[in-house]
Design brief:
Blueprint (H helix, E strand, L loop, with lengths): L2 H13 L8 H14 L5 H15 L3 H29 L1 H19 L5 H30 L4 H30 L1 H22 L25 H4 L1 E2 H4 L6 H22 L1 H6 L5 H6 L1 H22 L1 H19 L5 H30 L4 H18 L1 H11 L3 H7 L1 H12 L6 E2 L4 H12 L1
Antiparallel strand pairs: 1-2
Helix pairs in contact: 2-6, 2-7, 2-8, 3-7, 4-5, 4-6, 4-17, 5-6, 5-8, 6-7, 7-8, 7-14, 7-16, 11-15, 11-16, 11-17, 11-18, 11-20, 14-15, 14-16, 15-16, 15-20, 18-19
């Protein structure tokens, strides 16, 4: 530890009361604020300002949607790069940088005038908000917790739920009072206030940096006794995208965001085909949000009890039930049940995607693995609405398209069943050699 870390450890262990909660929970709270602050780069906030932007710029809705899709695709690549930076320079430094840039681009959004400015702004806000902040938040929680990683990740993801519930009406109020440009300037200041001071004062990359161990334990986790000092995990040493194990887990974890994005994007049209109004389509977001929040909390404990693999299998089954139920929807109450099922899958997925990679690959070099997974997930979500739209256009209705979508969770359940945790370890490599090999293989 450096002199600053030694002083931090002395104050924490000798000066402050000895019965304070484990410091990792302070890290988790900061991570939850980071996921909350990701809102200005998420679709639920953009949805509030899309119509004012169209009126202001005179662009067509399809063209603006294309700019948004291109920006989202860029965010997938950016997330992979940010995760690598986290491994190399530490999550704390990268979080400060991302917070600074994200707030700055929110202010920059207020100054855009034409298509090029919107494309750059969409790409930056999606990459820094929708992509980087949630990944950095989950990396922090994964480093500080092992035994209690599920419940810690559940608290982190409650930041997303709170952001989803609070930021759209707040943004709408700002737009009504000041206009969409001033609203984004205010959101940028919010990002700076929530992220930068906490990252500087509170966040530390790992518990070991201040003389602690994950979960507040007296010794390192049993599963990591030799991992970081005498070993390198072979699957991490290879680029994740080139391993079969990675894809057997990454595709099922990306399936829920893909399906949820496609179904929510076309929700009004799907329900209109069943003679349900736009008001019904809007109203079922409430049971969706309630179910998502409930399963977010529950899934943390389920993962600690049964492990990520079984929770992912259950979630694939639940997704299949949700799509199957949608095929039968014909009334407002049945649409609410569908939304509840879909929200439950969303809550389960948000935790499993944050926990699974650390659970199976360990904490060392986690950024490169989780960054690659986030890239796959975000890319899938970016293109998700297009296949469903094309199928509907080809078939003339959504019924056949939904039947084809029903195959996705079934196939992904088979992939999860075939997944084997990457447990191979080279047990005679020193820490220095490990880092050298990781960089060499990744290059």
């Amino acid at each position: 530890m450096n002199s600053r870390s030694v002083l931090f450890h002395y104050v924490r262990t000798r000066v402050l009361p000895s019965r304070l909660p484990f410091y990792g929970w302070a890290i988790v709270i900061v991570a939850a604020f980071a996921t909350f602050a990701s809102g200005p780069g998420q679709s639920y906030v953009f949805s509030v300002v899309i119509d004012p932007i169209l009126i202001d710029t005179g662009l067509s809705r399809p063209f603006l949607s294309l700019l948004y899709a291109c920006g989202t695709a860029f965010s997938a690549l950016m997330t992979f790069w940010v995760s690598r930076l986290s491994d190399r320079y530490g999550t704390r430094r990268v979080l400060m940088l991302v917070g600074l840039l994200f707030g700055s681009f929110c202010l920059g959004m207020a100054a855009v005038r034409g298509p090029l400015g919107l494309l750059i702004s969409f790409a930056a806000l999606r990459a820094l908000g929708q992509g980087s902040l949630p990944v950095l938040a989950t990396l922090l929680a994964a480093q500080w917790f092992v035994a209690y990683r599920g419940r810690a990740m559940a608290v982190v993801m409650l930041g997303i739920a709170a952001s989803n519930a609070l930021l759209p009406p707040i943004t709408q109020a700002l737009v009504t009072a000041w206009g969409w440009r001033e609203a984004y300037s205010a959101l940028g200041v919010m990002v700076w206030v929530l992220i930068i001071p906490a990252a500087i004062v509170i966040v530390r990359d790992r518990p070991e940096s201040i003389g602690l161990y994950p979960d507040g334990a007296a010794t390192p986790p049993a599963s990591e006794q030799h991992e970081e000092h005498t070993a390198v995990r072979l699957p991490v040493a290879r680029p994740p995208l080139r391993t079969l194990a990675f894809w057997l887990l990454a595709l099922p974890l990306a399936a829920s965001p893909f399906l949820i994005t496609a179904l929510v994007f076309h929700q009004a049209s799907i329900l209109a085909e069943r003679n349900l109004s736009a008001a019904v389509s809007a109203s079922i977001f409430m049971p969706f949000a309630i179910a998502a929040a409930g399963t977010t909390l529950l899934s943390g404990f389920l993962i600690e009890r049964f492990g990520p693999k079984y929770v992912i299998l259950f979630n694939m089954g639940l997704m299949a039930v949700a799509i199957g139920w949608l095929l039968t929807v014909s009334s407002a109450w049945s649409a609410s049940i569908y939304a509840t099922l879909l929200g439950a899958t969303s809550g389960l997925q948000s935790i499993t995607s944050g926990v699974a990679w650390a659970h199976y690959y360990g904490r060392h070099g986690l950024g490169r693995v989780q960054g690659a997974a986030a890239m796959v997930m975000i890319t899938g979500a970016a293109i998700a609405p297009l296949p469903l739209a094309l199928l509907q256009q080809m078939m003339g209705n959504y019924q056949t398209a939904l039947l084809l979508l029903l195959l996705i969770p079934i196939v992904c359940a088979a992939l999860v069943a075939a997944f084997q945790p990457p447990l191979a370890v080279a047990s005679t490599v020193s820490t220095t050699t490990s880092d050298h090999l990781l960089d060499r293989f990744e290059g």
